[in-house]
Amino acid sequence: MNDIFDFGRFGKLFVYECRNYLPRYIKGMVVFASFLVAAWLFTIASEYPFDSRTNFITVLFFFAIFLSPYFVYKEMNNRKKGYFYAMLPASTFEKLLSMTLVSVVVVPAVVYLSLSVTDVLLYALSCAGAGYFTGLEFCNPFNLLTDVDIVNLKWNFGDELAALFSGKHIVLWCVMNISVVMMFNSIFRKHKIIKTLLFNMAVQFLFQIAVIFFAVWFPEATERFADWVEHFLTDYTPGELLTMIDNTVLLVNTLVTVVALTITYFRIKRVNY
Amino acid sequence: MIEIKNLSFAYSNVKVLDNISTTFEQGRIYGLLGANGVGKSTMFKLLCGLLTSKEGTIEIDGVSPAGRKPGFLSKIFYVPEDFEGPDMSIENYAAGVSQFYPNYDAALFARLLGEFEIDVTRKFTSLSLGQRKRAILALALALRTDYLFLDEPTNGLDIPSKAEFRRMVAAAMDENRTIIISTHQVRDVENLLDHIMILDKQAVLLDKSVSDIQKEYLFEVSAAAPADALYVEPGLGGCCSISRNTTGEESRINIELLFNYINSIK
Questions:
Q1: In terms of CA atoms, which chain A residue is nearest residue B81?
Q2: A189 at the B interface (CB within 8 A)?
Q3: CA A202 to CA A162: how far, in whole Å?
Q4: Is the domain of B165 the same as that of B224?
Q5: Alpha-helical regions (H) of B63-105
Q6: Which domain CATH number covers B108?
Q7: What's the domain range around B243?
Q8: Interface test with B, best of A81, A94, A265 (most B CBs within 10 A)
Q9: Contact call for B100 and A92, based on CB within 8 A
Q10: Which domain holds residue A161?
Q11: pLDDT digit string, tens, across residues B25-65
Q12: Contact with chain B for residue A5, Cβ under 8 A
């Protein structure tokens, strides 16, 4: 028996998880869809045009897919219930792969479908013009960015920069975020969402404090760094800078994803119950 | 075969098991006894790889449980004392899980559930503790794993279910299986066991087969305690005593008395 990967065993595990874990989350999708319905009803009641509906659905969509590991795999490290997951006769790699596929492919597909169906139904109901069908538009989170026009902050890159934040970047950004959530889900046993938020806030706070202390204690070095950044921005053409940003974003997202999945792997393998 | 060598385990700074060495042979039903907190449940978790120890080794058929390898996991099943069950129906859970166990007997599972009067369509979370226990015990026996670890299996079971449980375990036993039962309700399982192990934090106090215990000790209930009694307790019919078996007479083991005797001389 191959103790690392076996297609047959992986297939059984994947089907088992889709059959037994996903229904819990599909129930949760009813809640997300109800937010959309509530917003639509508010639109009708207030006779206020629901112009930001695409953005609203975009936010709902990404909330739903990013939070999914917390709900679908909430019991994986629970001291009383989680040992069933640990003792399931599949390898750690198969469990990680199945968890990743469910979280990155299956859940987003289910979420997308449920929000689309809700939206179509609302469109069908809103003949009086209270709403409109958003269709495929909401799958690009950077619609939010272009709407507030932050792409024109420094250089007037406009569409070029917007184009940068699409396709592979969106997919990788989603995979990275879901991987990070999977990692925190495997690390924290209780109050997972709150602990994740607090952890991230603490890291950001410490980083900012570190930057402030660095600037206060090493003013010359800080000045040299500022000069370096200024030269860096003027030494390259906008096209070159865009390519560098493109590569850097891809590299950082990939690195974070790999680190998060590696930590999740070892948590699945070694977590005590 | 399960081989434990110099096993120690501690939760933070609280030592639970200290330098324990023992073996569990195939084809036997072991009774793992011990006072609260001596580490019986911890021992089960170590055997399943749910906990890992820094000191000592455990090998089950030559494999360390800590690796949680699929080949190993498909040979064992563990029913914990405080079984809550996953948030899914019994039939869905059994259908999903059983695929990973090559010796699973679906007909046996259906029969056991029928005898335990459990509705397979119900979710674990909607059942009482006793019903959940019966459902998971039925599955545990039907998976037909080589090693089965049952932690307080009769807790929460009603009187008919306890008798049914004994009958089922006896029927499920064969020469390739090892069943280890940890319990304080020794009367519920005393007719099942063919090996008794009494565990203490510091050592294995007793590790003998039932036949060896019967050869070594004589268990009696008499109006007055025998003069050569090793240990005596007042009982309903008089005095319950343990003496050295010098006559070769075979007596029925009183596990509770044996446990108290062994603990009194440790």
A1: A80
A2: no
A3: 31
A4: no
A5: 70-73, 90-98
A6: 3.40.50.300
A7: 209-266
A8: A81
A9: no
A10: 7-270
A11: 999 999 999 999 899 999 999 999 999 998 999 999 999 99
A12: no
B45 reaches A (C-beta below 8 A):
yes
Is the CB of B68 less than 8 angstroms away from the CB of A86?
Answer: yes
B49 and B162 part of one domain = yes
Instruction: Check CB contact of B125 with chain A, cutoff 8 Å.
Output: no
**Could you give the ipTM of this predicted complex?**
0.89
For the record, the structure tokens of B234 come out as 């007042």
Looking at the fold, whether B198 and B233 belong to one and the same domain comes out as no
CB of B212 within 8 A of CB of B193? no
Residue A146 Cα, gap to closest chain B Cα (Å): 42
Q: Which residues of B touch A92 (CB under 8 A)?
A: 68
Q: Compute how many other C-beta atoms are within 10 angstroms of the C-beta atom of residue B139.
A: 22
- Tokens representing A249 are 């974003």
In chain A, % of residues over pLDDT 90: 44
Which residue of chain B has the CA closest to A83?
B50
Question: Per the structure, how many domains does chain B have?
Answer: 2
Tally of domains within chain A = 1
Residue type, A212: I
Mutation site for B-interface testing, chosen from A87, A266, A270 by largest number of B Cβ within 10 Å: A87
Radius of gyration for chain B, computed over Cα atoms and rounded to the nearest angstrom: 19
Rounded mean pLDDT, A244-271: 94
Tell whether B71 and B182 lie within a shared domain.
yes
Q: Give the tokens for residue A205.
A: 């706070």
pLDDT digits (tens, 9 = 90+) for A36-84: 888 777 777 776 665 667 777 888 888 889 999 998 999 899 988 888 8
| Final residue of a structural domain among B202, B226, B249 | B202
* Contact status of A169 with chain B (Cβ, < 8 Å): no
Question: Would you say residue A99 lies in a domain?
Answer: yes
CA dist B208 and B195 (Å) reads 6
Which of the 8 DSSP states describes residue B71?
H
Q: Does A24 touch chain B (CB under 8 A)?
A: yes
Same structural domain, B55 and B116: yes
Angstroms from A90 CA to nearest CA on chain B: 5
> In this model, does residue A130 exceed pLDDT 50?
no
A270 touching chain B per CB within 8 A: yes
Which residue among B163, B187, B202 closes a domain? Answer: B202
* H or E element at residue B20: strand B14-24
Q: Which two tokens stand for residue B47?
A: 């055997």
Task: Verify that B195 and B239 share a domain, yes or no.
Answer: no
Q: Is residue A149 part of a domain?
A: yes
Task: Classify residue A232: in a domain, yes or no.
Answer: yes
Residue A134 lies inside a defined structural domain of this protein: yes
